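Risk register update: the risk of archive-format incompatibility is retired. Evidence:
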Amino acid sequence: MRARSLKGKAKRAAAGRLLVIACHPDDESIACGGTIAAHVADGWEAHVLVLTSDARTPGLAAIRKRECRDACEALGAQPPIFVDIPERRLSQHPDAFAAGVAKVLRNVRPRKVFLHGPIDINRDHRAAALMGRQVLRNIGYPGELYQYCVWFPTNIALGPYPLRTIGISSYSSCKDRAMACYPSQAGIIRQLRFLLRATNRVAGLLSRERDAEVFSRRQ
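Archived output:
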C-alpha cells in the first residue's frame, strides 16, 4: 500500500489522532510501524514525537532527523516533532521532557498514545516510560495508553497489565520500508529484524493474523 494513499485517506476522514512517543529516531518504526500504517489506513491521523538527539557525532543528528521524516512519510504519518534532549541523558532533563510532551499532547489531543514500556534494556526507554506516565497523569490525559518494548518486545508481557495485539499483516511491507529509511542504523536494525519478525509472528497467533505488534494496555 502506498504512503501517499494512506496519508490522503487520513486527511480526508480522520477517525481520530494517535501519538507515538519515541526516544530515538527509528523506535517508532521498529516497535509501532505496522500499527501506525494500519491506523492511517483506517482513517486515523498519526503523529510521532521524538525525544532525544545524538549530538556526540557531528552531523548525525541531522541525518537521523531526515531519516525519521522519510520513515514517517513511508508510514503515512505526519512529519515528526523533535524535542532534542541529549541522547542517553533523558532522565537528567525531566523539565524539558515534561514541557515537550505536554505541549504536543495539548496540540495533538490524541485518542491513543503509544509510549515506551518500563521493562527495556535501554535506559532512555525506561526513563521515557516512567516520566511519560507522570506527564499523562499530571495533565489528566483521558485517552488510551499503550506501552511497547523496542528491545525484546515480548518483555511487555512481564508487566501486570493486559496485552493488546494489533494486526499488521497487510502493513508489514510499510514497516519494512520505514525501517529501511534508517541506513545510519542499519547494523542495529539488522540485529533486531529476525527478533521482530519472530515476535510479530507470535503476536499474530494471539490476534488470528499472520503478523501483529504487541502492547500493554494501561488505561
